[in-house]
Amino acid sequence: MCKGIKSKFYLHFFKFRACLFQPIFLKQSLDKREAQNALRKLSLNSGMIDFCSNDYLGFAKSLELKSAIEKEYNSISTPSNGSGGSRLLAGHTLFVEQLENKIASFHAASAGLIYNSGYDANVGLFSAIGQKGSTIIYDELIHASVHDGIKLSSATAFMFKHNDVTHLEERLKIAEGIVYVAVESIYSMDGDDAPLKEICKLCKKYNANLIVDEAHATGVTINGGKGRVQEYALEQEVFARVHTFGKALGCHGAIILGTELLRNYLINYSRSFIYTTALPLHSLVAIQESYRLLENAQTKIDALHELVSYFKNGLKQASPISFVESQSPIQCLLISGNEAVKKLAQVLQANNLDIRPILSPTVPKGKERLRVCLHSFNTISEINQLFKVLHELTNI
Ligand SMILES: Cc1ncc(COP(=O)(O)O)c(C=O)c1O
Prior knowledge:
The chain is of the alpha/beta class and about 400 residues long. The protein has helices at about 5-20, 25-35, 65-75, 95-105, 120-130, 145-150, 165-175, 195-205, 230, 260-270, 270-275, 280-295, 300-320, 340-350, 380-395, and strands at about 50, 110-115, 135-140, 155-160, 180-185, 210-215, 240-245, 255-260, 330-335, 355, 355-360, 370-375. The protein starts with a helix and ends with a helix. Pyridoxal-5'-phosphate binds next to helix 5.
């Protein structure tokens, strides 16, 4: 047998053999997803017009940021490819401690603790604070990472209807023990705002601790990207804030902001902080330089908000599709049903517009959507191109 045919034969043989030894539920579960038109697949970024990424300010692809990171990283003489361990062992450095202080001070918080991702931060926070006898009340649209943190906690958990403060108050009335309320300042899949001021008032009234996930507000809010909590001067009212670095900041990781007491508690009890290798120096330098760039990014933030207004005004004229009311760069067009929303996304993609369908079960059945993310680097003509295709598709 020639070499090529032989290696193909072995490849098929091993694939076949591997299949035989897989638990049957793997295939059954995937078949079920396929039947629901909800099978998740990885797809490569194809150079289409970006209406999809969370890179709201273009930092992830910024040459200015790339060279600032390289310059700073190269100026550090000790080689550091990896951190060498958990923060509690070899992975702790003066650099990360100083960075935490700088970010905490940028966000007007007393202390901060960096995690390897926003997912880790939420899982580590909620699993650690959710002691037996305490209660966590969460908005029904809260991110999966908060759900996972709650699952790992010993607390009692109640959901309240999305942004419904009356329902939240009903929940607060029956909550027992130490009470936490979990919201996102800007919701990831809807792009709308939490009524933070009212929620804060209620938390004060019922002596509850408010936790705000600022993932999609970081770098985006009009106050230099410091987030909604600072925009409304609520720093003192909030128990903890989570800011992530993987969205507008264009890099990776997250920080939990709060008191020094909370920081020390998390260092002792937050398992996703303790039992993992710390971020390497290169990632920390990237976070530092990204925050530096953010300090001079007001023009970009203003441009982003102008595009959001342009989009919101034009969309109503371009298409009768209903949308989720939102002031943020996340604008969602509701198209019921996985098949329908997938088809529409395919047409948009065929027109060079990178817009992804958000399917159930990621969002509730019937609330499937096209999630359009706007960026400071998008242009009016790109948005007009999107309107044109939507108009042709929906005004027949
Ligand atoms: C609201 C919210 N919180 C947390 C996360 C997790 O952050 P990261 O991507 O840094 O893990 C995300 C990301 O999808 C998010 O949208």
